[in-house]
Amino acid sequence: MKKLELSFACWNYDRIGALLDGTVCPKGIDLNYLNMEVEETFWRMMRHHEFDVAELSLSSYLIGKDRGTLPATAIPVFMSRSFRHSGIYVHTGAGIEVPSDLRGKRVGLPEYQLTACLWIRGILEHEYGVKPSDVHWFSGGEEKPGRIEKVALDLPKDIDIRPINANQTLNRMLEDGEIDAFIAPRAPSCFLNGSPNVRRLFRDYVREEQMYYQKTHIFPIMHVIVIQDHILQQHPWVAMNLYQAFVAAKEKVYEGFRQTAALKVTLPWLMAEVERTKEIMGEDFWPYGIEQNRASLEAAILYSYEQGMIHRKIPLDELFVSSTFESFTI
Predict the structure, then answer these.
(1) Rg (Cα) of the chain, in Å, rounded?
(2) What is the pLDDT of residue 1?
(3) What is residue 7's three-state secondary structure?
(4) What is the pLDDT of residue 326?
(5) Order of strands across the sheet with 53-57?
(6) What is the pTM of this model?
(7) What was the pLDDT predicted at 22?
């Protein structure tokens, strides 16, 4: 029988490598893989619903489901995850040494609703007592002028946010001291280029992130995989078959990490890093599924609700295909 052909928009991660080279094949499905930067995938999926299966920002997904504007539902596969203490950059002349120093400061971000920014604001509030209303926000293009929110927002009245001018970039404003700090998933080029005017807020961010995980057991989720609802209605088996394939593809990455004869990844102390990660986070340190990720998912929902981007705390059974909550046992 002919397989079901589905377009699949996603960045080129190691954890889907086995799907791309055919080592793992989802049962009954032929994926037409579209390799794109995440920003393009998110924009086209949120604005135009272009792809059958797509990687999508968790924050954008929550907003789309809350408003009923996104005709797609997620499976608990998390393409991107990242601890975000490293994503706070400060101007060295702004007098910001600890998180509480951000109160009253001018802080830039590319889009208010970005998942990385959602997590950073939530962490600042819940771990350090700095609320979103304590900060003056500036939004716009990080490296190029003209970026706008991909999803229109209706934020609480106590949030002070304004767009930067059409010819400005947040990167230049940070380096020049026109803003005091910057939060984003992508490091600004001024920092990457070694500007003496910019540094991370948390100098030892790895230690901070490890302490955060040990306290909360949260490994922040950035991106989910969504499937168009009309496909799920016509072919409900697609969700579980894709989920199983993504799990199998991720296991191939773990298998590569266990090889000691030759390093699978271009990293000299790969084995030491994998061992250290397992000591802190366990054998399956990048888990898929609902229960293994309940704390992280519920935190993201809470932060989005508290920050006024969604209007209710959406139950997990409304966010993920029901068949992926359980599996068969022999």
Answers:
(1) 20
(2) 72
(3) strand
(4) 80
(5) 29-35, 4-10, 53-57, 221-228, 72-81
(6) 0.94
(7) 95
Burial (CB count <10 Å: 0-12, 13-18, 19+), residue 308: middle
106 phi and psi, to 5 degrees? -90, 115
Q: In this structure, are residues 179 and 170 in contact, taking their beta carbons and an 8 Å threshold?
A: yes
Long-range contacts of 211-216 (CB under 8 A, 24+ apart): 212/83, 212/85, 212/123, 212/127, 213/83, 213/280, 213/281, 214/280, 216/295, 216/299
Structure tokens, 186: 């992508």
Q: Give the orientation angle of helix 237-257 with respect to helix 270-281, to 10 degrees.
A: 130
CA dihedral 97, 102, 106, 112 (to 10 degrees): 120
The pLDDT of residue 328 is 66
Q: What secondary structure does DSSP assign to 221-261, as a single string?
A: EEEEEEEEHHHHHH-THHHHHHHHHHHHHHHHHHHHHT--S
How many residues appear in the chain? Answer: 330
Element (DSSP H or E) covering residue 29: strand 29-35
Neighbours of 266 (CB within 10 A): 6
pLDDT averages per 10-residue partition of the chain, 330 residues? 94 97 97 96 95 97 96 98 97 98 98 96 98 97 90 90 95 98 97 98 97 97 98 98 98 94 92 96 97 97 97 97 80
> Cα–Cα distance between 209 and 304 in angstroms, integer?
21
